[in-house]
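STRUCTURE:
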């Protein structure tokens, strides 16, 4: 036990210790201890599940918890489920309401991460997608930083390849496909890096293990297109808009060669968990001057202000949880 906790970072330890208080399970909000599935559950055995990941940010001054782009997250969540032949009566709007009810039941006054899961719940043997019962669960738990070095991450190029759209679609959050992300992440961490960039089958950079990527070259932000086996990230979409509208930086969506990232001026990763994480070294080569670049730094400030509900221009992205 001592050995295990010694090998975990402070963030990982905190996150591994706190369990959710309640869960949305079988259509009701119940104590988390009652949200249980059998070991033969289809989604658990075959990875036939799709998940989401959204955040709510605590605003101390306003004493309010704000969900960030909750409807967009739930739209993608239901689309990911559709890739697995799942149909629900829920809409993005109804799932946002369930999430508000859940967060109110928990009474959080801190940043939280919310994890919706749509899974094949039958307890049977047999690999298929059709003719099975589908279920949705949602839990929330306190959550701070995801990448420990979020101002100076050192990343490598993974020796693993990204799953292809014709194998398991990367554009949705399909549970089974995250074995690919787990292989990438553990390899990177166990080799002393903070994260890894992963190449497509054709050798272009797609994304990180659980984040989209952007590089800056000559004042232009470049990010891979959604046809390059990336998750269609909500933070990616947000950052594209903020770069253009708030910072006047042009954004181009095009494939990125492996060696381009070795000579770019700035590099950052985006995700609900990672937020805007600055990368300052790639495969032991400094990115630009080897410190967080000015565009990345400004973007982090603008982003944090918006997600906490402090920028009226973007209030349409903030859903208050408490009355
Ligand atoms: N790529 C992958 C593979 C991810 O798991 C995530 C996290 N959801 C992202 C990118 C970032 O997506 P988002 O900004 O919607 O969280």
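SEQUENCE:
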């Amino acid at each position: 036990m001592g050995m295990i906790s010694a090998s975990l970072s402070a963030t990982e330890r905190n996150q591994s210790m706190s369990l959710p208080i309640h869960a949305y399970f079988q259509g009701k909000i119940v104590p988390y201890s009652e949200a249980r599935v059998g070991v033969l559950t289809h989604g658990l055995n075959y990875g036939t599940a799709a998940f989401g990941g959204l955040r709510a940010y605590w605003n101390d001054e306003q004493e309010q918890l704000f969900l960030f782009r909750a409807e967009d997250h739930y739209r993608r969540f239901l689309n990911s489920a559709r890739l697995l032949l799942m149909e629900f009566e829920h809409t993005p709007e109804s799932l946002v309401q369930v999430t508000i009810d859940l967060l109110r039941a928990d009474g959080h006054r801190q940043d939280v991460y919310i994890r919706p899961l749509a899974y094949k719940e039958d307890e049977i043997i047999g690999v298929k997608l059709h003719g099975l019962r589908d279920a949705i669960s949602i839990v929330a738990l306190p959550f701070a930083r995801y990448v420990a070095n979020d101002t100076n991450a050192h990343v490598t190029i993974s020796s693993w390849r990204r799953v292809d759209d014709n194998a398991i679609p990367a554009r949705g959050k399909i549970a089974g496909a995250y074995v690919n992300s787990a292989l990438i992440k553990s390899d990177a961490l166990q080799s002393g890096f903070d994260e890894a960039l992963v190449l497509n089958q054709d050798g272009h950079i797609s994304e990180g293990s659980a984040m989209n990527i952007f590089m800056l070259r000559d004042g232009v932000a470049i990010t891979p297109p959604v046809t390059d086996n990336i998750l269609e990230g909500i933070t990616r979409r947000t950052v594209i808009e903020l770069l253009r509208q708030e910072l006047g930086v042009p954004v181009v969506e095009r494939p990125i060669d492996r060696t381009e990232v070795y000579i770019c001026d700035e590099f950052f990763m985006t995700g609900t968990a990672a937020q805007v994480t600055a990368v300052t070294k790639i495969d032991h080569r400094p990115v630009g001057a080897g410190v967080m670049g000015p565009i990345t730094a400004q973007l982090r400030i603008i982003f944090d202000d918006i997600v906490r509900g402090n920028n009226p221009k973007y209030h349409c992205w903030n859903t208050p949880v408490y009355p």
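REMARK: The pocket of 4'-deoxy-4'-aminopyridoxal-5'-phosphate is lined by residues 53, 181, 207, 210-212, 231, 233-236, 270-272 (CB under 6 Å).
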